[in-house]
Amino acid sequence: MEPPREAPEPRWLDAEEQQQWYAIAYVLTQLPAALETRMQRDAGIGHFDYMVMCALSMAPEGTRRMSDLAQCAGSTLSRLSNVVARLEKRGWVRRHPDPTDGRCTLATLTDDGRGKVASAAPGHVDEVRRLIFDPLTKAQRRQLAAASRRILGALQTTCPGDLIPPADRD
User: Fold this and answer.
1) Quick one: which of 36, 109, 120, 168 has the most CB atoms within 10 Å?
2) DSSP code at position 90
3) Range of 116's domain?
4) DSSP states of 117-130
């Protein structure tokens, strides 16, 4: 019997990497909270709810399979189902079987849902500009997008091309 192998020594972060990581980690906690606060104040809905409806609004005929919608929203199917159920109760989304594949469920944005997205969009865009785009130069915005794509690659996840098209160059 072979002796147990020792785990490799962790690749610790150096001082500069630690500072960079903490800055990123802090943004990851503060940005969603700020976007949520603005969306609740302006539109009376959660930011995640808004992002789900936006993903539907960008789809042909406002319809996506629930599994695709979960991927677009960066969500589990279970969490998405709960959110879509809440959106259905408000009359903004409806679910129905996929006529081409009965095993799948489709989510469709209703006319009232489109209206909600349209009325919430100006405040959302204003906050995104204020918090993300305005503090950065055009070159920094490109770098941020390129870095985000690389991180998504490391996570082995992709966002559907109609939401985040591939970059011409990174």
Assistant:
1) 109
2) T
3) 26-154
4) HHHHHHHHHHHHII
